[in-house]
Specification:
Length: 764
Amino acid sequence: MLPALERKHMMVRLQAMLRQVQKTRPFVPTPIRRMNRFQYNNAVVDLLELDREIFRLNERLMRRRDDYFHPQTKKMPPQVRISSRPLSKDIDNQRPEGFKGVASFPQDKRAEHGFDNRADHLTLSPLLMESFLKLSQTIVESPDLNPKECRSWDWLFASPGQSARGPVRGRYEVEQGGPVKVVGTPKGRAWSQNMRQWGAHWSGDTQLIWMCREKGLEMTLAFESAAAKGLRIGLTKAPDYGMFDLYLDDVKLGKAIDLYDPRVIRAPDNEFSEIKITPGPHTLKIKCVGKRDQSKNFLFGMDYIELALEEPSPNSPKVNRTETEVIRSRLKKLLRRAFRRPVDSETLDRFAKFAQKQIASGASFEEAMRTMVGAILGMPDFLYFYEASGNEKLGNKDRGRQRISDFELASRLSLFFWSSIPDDALLNLAESGKLSDPKILSAQIDRMLNDRRSGRFCENFPSQWLQLDRLITSVPDPKKFPYFYLVDGYRTSMHMIAEPLLLFETVYIEDRSIMELLDPKFTWENPMLHANYAGHSKAGHDVVTQLFKRVPLTDPRRGGVITSAAIMTMTATPIRTQPITRGAWVNAVIFNEPPEPPPADVPPLPEASKEELAKLTIRERLAAHRKREDCAGCHNKIDPLGFALENYGPTGVWRDTYGNGREVDVSGVLFNQHEFKTLVEFKQLILKEKHRFLRGFISHLLSYALGRGLGPADSPALDEMTAQAMKGQDQMRAVLKSIAMSDPFVHKNTLATTVLEKKAHSEK
């Protein structure tokens, strides 16, 4: 046997040789990537600048009821309101989610130990293609595709010379992205608030809420108007609203308005009929003058500003551009966005001629543009992300890999962070050839991470990484766990889902160390979840909208994704825990080392129905499986991980003994080298083996970012990113940036492309 020092030197040399070999090998080829339905929805929303989703997305396990996701602030509020979609009843009775007449596209299946964006799993059968084409047509035919919902209306659907957005029949919707702008930054945040839970009384189901905190503060809104006589303002009343003066262009409008009410209601319209408004820019200033004693705060909510528009003058300037020019201009912009690259003149001519033919056949301008959009949304150029082969010759050292183009880089970035298509800023940089510049790329990644669209990453990645969809089918025995079931069939699992997802969002927004996913000093809980951990009766009935508060942790047994009630419940049967399932989950999710499937002839574990079985612990009942030679290898690896969590019952409730009175034994050996006797010791050892989690988590992220499984050629990049994280660069955004700037992310396999090109050439 070689001395320890010599063994160490030999291993260093072997690892260096392996890395060198890996660098000369090509990356795993990425097949042509089709959008999954989550990406398709987002892409349509961004392309058409819509204000809501196209269809219901049940894979978004948690729904934000408060508008708290502001990553640029790097601060989570102390409490948030959320709901869990798939486990609740239809909470959108006032306004069903999605566009009218648009059916949900079939949900894409996840790869085993992977994600639902894997290119090799996103096949498109003829039947599925037909569904896509039908879906694209129903989108453009939906009555919800209208000026109120679609911010692109003026530049896309409206007839030349006509403005349909802001105002629509004189009404300005006061919301983010609309025609009314908040001027400057008022003291206290202002944002668009969803009002669906309080009824269908607000236009567009939204309002502008201003978090005014004290008397004397001001907020100013700016908008453009045609000539008008008369003004009507729609406001909201609520238990925490104040009293305000309104000023139009610094002229006070009537008396102070009191917005207090014990309920959340639409206030009666405030009408100012004698106000004359000239064409051009205007401001509306809101000044807080106090509040009632009963009011809890000084908040302000506004639904709309409505003007009594005068008829346009016959001498109003006319549009000089021809209809043909307008069509080409709009299609050029639309196609560039939809296809993620500049469109050649031949393609543009083909689309423009088709639109003109529609109009010549009697269709209106709007109808023709709807037809064009419907065709584009069903085209392969929109549905698929593919990477063209380059023409440059590569040296031997670069054999098998080539840097992707700037447009391909823009698409990869937008799919990773936004689950959508690139915006104009990315496309402009790609067109100028500047996006791949390391400094510019770094700045763009920062911009994207601070954009609210990054909320889609927080909606999609963590739920799949943690496999939380398994919780939906978890149904603990109601006789053994009556506290798990709430009123009207609701389950505590609704509340369990939110805890790890809110933890992930907090780590992301506040840019914390990813190690806090395992061991934070805080958690998120509501009364119902708190009651579940305590194992006692129901607490409250907040089943539709759940108020979660951020609470500090002092008990080392709580906190982190591994020991959350969600994971413990979904890895158990209705009547007992499953240590093997829990161990396999930890191995696959936390360390990204999924175990091999069990042999086909392994008998199922009998339930504790017989008297002799009822006297045994689960560890004793599973001992037979560990004795099989073909099972021992895997079981020695995963069993300690599962038994370490045996103190948590089938719903995550702590226990020291089993139902038969036997003491719970969680002792074991971690990674065949670290002995532990308690759960706390187990968690400490997991944290001590920091590099295992960092590499596993980063490899999950890289696979998700690339939309493929990883291969040997990805190992050097994984080693490098893990090493950076071990040196202290383990904050969430630093890790995400390292992935987006890594070798596998900015390169592609060229050998596979060459083979395909030769094959195609030989067939000609």
